[in-house]
Design goal:
This protein is of the alpha+beta class. The protein is built from 9 helices and 11 strands. It has 2 domains: about 90 residues, Phosphorylase Kinase, domain 1 (2-Layer Sandwich); about 200 residues, Orthogonal Bundle (Transferase(Phosphotransferase), domain 1).
């Protein structure tokens, strides 16, 4: 995200408590800023939607409020914690500050990741999706730019702005007629023809993610969006060089054209990825060399060993 001059937002305090300090990037709705909670003296991330930029103020408020409630509802280590939400002239959501950067930028730097790293990232995403699916929620926009890799190796799934519900409750979709939610280049074929989002459509995006991390390109990549969408509906993805056959087979099942041919759950995919997570090579400048001794990992390892 490029800034031509120092934005006014960087000089303000939101709700008389959250000091806005520096730009982080553009979210699915609004801008995301680094900031500081003046009351608790801790870093935070602040998502803002300027009232001046709203085409439909009421619709934007509903969408933004919905994203805040969805994110806050998912209590999971792979989802940023929501601390606060409100309206201070502009809509704001205050969240956990995430060290690290997007997996999209990681891919740009490395082009293709060693397959153990792709499996490591994908398995964490599946753990988050398992929690979301258990809560009756579909993310709908899993892609490298919506994942943050922290220095301890943990992956955070962000931007639930286009998430939808499997039911008709408070989190059911509010997408307008004719509007394509999420990112079309990562979208399951059935969604492109108007079928409802499902757990299987989220798993398709995991397949796109894994393919891209392992090969450096999207499975049906093309400069022209419409051509890429057509390829996703009619062609098989190219072979994945230097990827073990069983792992490639799992990724191809995730990319099946029809939902019923994909794995049955995020937990199934997680279990399929676990055996490929070994001998992770260093990611210099991204993951600390002593990440294995990070207190969060020690806690998780102790819990796993205790539960067998």
């Amino acid at each position: 995200m490029e800034w031509q001059e120092e934005p006014v937002s960087a000089m303000r305090t939101v709700a008389e408590r959250y000091k806005v300090t520096s730009p982080i990037g553009q979210g699915g709705m609004g801008e995301v800023w680094g900031g500081k909670d003046l009351r608790l003296n801790r870093p935070v991330a602040i998502k803002l939607i300027s009232s001046a930029d709203l085409v439909s103020a009421e619709d934007a408020r509903r969408r933004f409020s919905r994203e805040a409630r969805i994110t806050a509802r998912l209590s999971h280590p792979g989802v940023p914690v929501v601390y606060d939400f409100g309206n201070d002239g502009d809509l704001f959501m205050v969240m956990e500050s995430l060290p690290g950067d997007s997996v999209g930028k990681l891919k740009d730097e490395y082009e293709r990741l060693p397959y153990p790293w792709a499996a490591f990232i994908g398995a964490q995403v599946c753990a988050v999706l398992a929690a979301a699916h258990d809560a009756g929620l579909i993310h709908r926009d899993v892609k490298p730019e919506n994942l943050v890799l922290c220095p301890n190796g943990l992956v955070k799934v962000i931007d639930f702005g286009v998430a939808t519900s499997l039911g008709t409750g408070e989190f059911s979709t509010i997408t307008a007629a004719g509007q394509i939610p999420g990112s079309a280049r990562y979208m399951a074929p059935e969604l492109l023809v108007g079928e409802p989002a499902s757990r299987a459509s989220d798993l398709y995006t995991v397949g796109c993610l894994l393919y891209e991390l392992c090969t450096g390109s999207r499975p049906f990549q093309h400069d022209d969006l419409l051509r890429e969408i057509t390829r996703s509906r009619t062609e098989d993805p190219p072979a994945m060089d230097e990827v073990p056959g069983e792992l490639e087979a799992l990724i191809r099942r995730l990319l099946a054209k029809t939902p019923e041919r994909r794995p049955d759950s995020a937990v199934t995919v997680y279990r399929g990825l676990r055996p490929w997570i070994h001998d992770l090579p260093p990611l210099h400048g991204w993951v600390a060399g002593n990440a294995a001794t990070d207190p969060v990992h020690l806690y998780a390892a102790a819990a796993l060993s205790g539960l067998g």
